[in-house]
Design a protein that fits this description.
Blueprint (H helix, E strand, L loop, with lengths): L1 H26 L13 E6 L4 E6 H12 L6 H18 L16 E2 L11 H7 L2 H17 L3 E5 L2 E2 L4 E2 L10 H4 L22 E6 H8 L4 E10 L2 E10 L4 E6 L5 E6 L2 E4 H8 L6 E6 L2 E6 L8 E2 H9 L4 H8 L4 E4 L12
């Protein structure tokens, strides 16, 4: 009986502790790149540490996928994210004739998602997840990167600006509706696939004082009123809220604000979103008393690939190539190593 108990305990330890440990170490967030993807290192400025790090391209892509897209998403969505992330960095890598990271001289990219792409290390992913989650998600991410190793999105044979965002709220926009420059492959497309996904609708409240301080505007106007007092005209000067403190001057077909007047200044929708920390420029507003309410739909700038749209397409049976070609108009998926010999190929 004692021997049976000892055997049972030993078996449980083997199954519950030893085997998962071996499996986790076995996957350990690693990728075996294809032959054409080897030999390419990325110089990454890691914002969290303030240091430059050089790493294999596929290791960098793996960290971007882990940081930028939920690992619970479908495999084809993760593959699409891997290819988009790889395209983004290949276009910037100096060894391929790219300009590098403007914010950090000497780096190809940085880990600031507002400037380049978010990125986390395998150790950081391990800290964020439970033991079993790390095993499942690390292997899933690594598999998505490995199965697309070396693949990028191209337009007329050159790597594209592979912009992406979280959720479009129904439709992406043309690049010129956000950044003024028309790019042939960054065209507005329907994201009807997102219908069952969160709208990310958000209601944000600001006081008139808040907006004046954050935007450096005047939402009040000087008003002079004249009254008769003891037969004499007496002028009273006061500051009152403008009759129309906010006015949308232009919007895209998808409903995103392109230009808006707030008080005595005009802002692009993109700059307003950044200054106020809004989720999207697809917004409506309401002025009530001393308060201004903004309601936004979607999450992100709305250009290029919608990540939630990619997930919905993956669930509908679409491949990563289908997803990428849907969001990047007129593009192809190719192998970046074939572009490497010509340093001018990226321009």
């Amino acid at each position: 009986m004692d021997r049976a108990v000892v055997f049972s305990v030993a078996f449980c330890i083997l199954v519950v502790v030893v085997v998962p440990s071996v499996l986790v170490r076995g996957c350990d967030f690693t990728v075996q790149p294809r032959e054409e993807a080897q030999g390419s290192n990325v110089r990454v400025f890691v914002v969290a540490t303030g240091k430059m790090s050089e790493m294999p391209l596929e290791e960098y892509v793996r960290g971007v996928v882990a940081a930028e897209m939920p690992a619970s998403f479908g495999t084809e969505a993760l593959k699409a994210q891997a290819v988009a992330a790889r395209t983004f960095v290949v276009r910037r890598m100096r060894q391929f004739g790219g300009p590098g990271c403007a914010a950090h001289p000497g780096a190809d990219v940085c880990t600031d998602h507002l400037h380049c792409q978010a990125w986390i290390s395998g150790d950081e992913l391990r800290r964020r997840l439970s033991y079993l989650e790390y095993y499942a998600y690390a292997r899933k991410i690594a598999s998505a990167v490995e199965s697309t190793a070396g693949k990028i999105v191209t337009y007329q044979g050159k790597p594209i600006e592979a912009y992406y965002h979280s959720a479009s709220g129904g439709s992406t926009d043309n690049s010129e509706d956000v950044w003024s420059t028309a790019v042939p492959y960054l065209r507005a497309v329907s994201t009807r696939f997102e219908a069952s996904e969160p709208s990310f609708q958000q209601r944000v409240e600001f006081t008139i004082d808040d907006l004046e301080r954050k935007l450096g505007v005047k939402l009040r106007q000087r008003k002079v009123s004249t009254y008769k007092v003891a037969g004499k005209d007496v002028q009273v000067v006061a500051e009152e809220k403008m009759d129309r403190p906010i006015e949308v001057l232009g919007a895209s077909q998808a409903g995103r604000v392109k230009e808006v007047r707030i008080g005595d200044k005009v802002f692009s929708g993109y700059s307003l979103r950044e200054l106020l920390g809004l989720r999207s420029t697809k917004l409506t507003y309401q002025v009530a008393g001393d308060k201004v309410y903004f309601v936004t739909t979607g999450y992100g700038h709305g250009i290029g690939m919608s990540q939630y749209g990619a997930e919905a397409m993956a669930r509908a049976g679409k491949t990563y190539v289908d997803i990428l070609k849907h969001y990047y108009t007129g593009t192809e998926v190719a192998t970046y190593a074939r572009l490497a010999p010509a340093r001018s190929a990226l321009h």
